[in-house]
Amino acid sequence: MKLKLLLFTTLCFAQLGYSQNLVQLAKLKPAGAYENVKVQKIYSNKHTSSFVIWIKKGVKAHKHLKHTEQVYILAGKARMRLDDQTFEVKKGDWIAIPEGSVHAVTVTSRKPLQVFSVQSPEFLGKDRVFVKE
Q1: In the chain, at which end, N or C, are there fewer CB atoms within 10 A of the end residue's CB?
Q2: pTM, rounded to two decimals
């Protein structure tokens, strides 16, 4: 009986699409070696894109002309610049980055900074403009 119930529940969730959209972010590990930044796409459609990003050193100052980005810190610590402000970020922090805002990050922890990034509308890699500091 328990096996039938488990099978029925699994089939129902699969039909609703839950099994394909459920990701345990805290358990993700970067696939393969990387020098500074590793990006793993989690989900994307014409309205939004989400990624898990691992950063060992930092990301240079840049802005997105047509995207709003929201970042949630999953692990690590860093110093973040957002326009004319600089502040420390750590696990559990959430940062909203409006379109056109210059932002950068310098990792301050021994382990890489791991973030969950949501960008709206869909990010296809063509809307990142690096700026001189």
Answers
A1: N
A2: 0.82
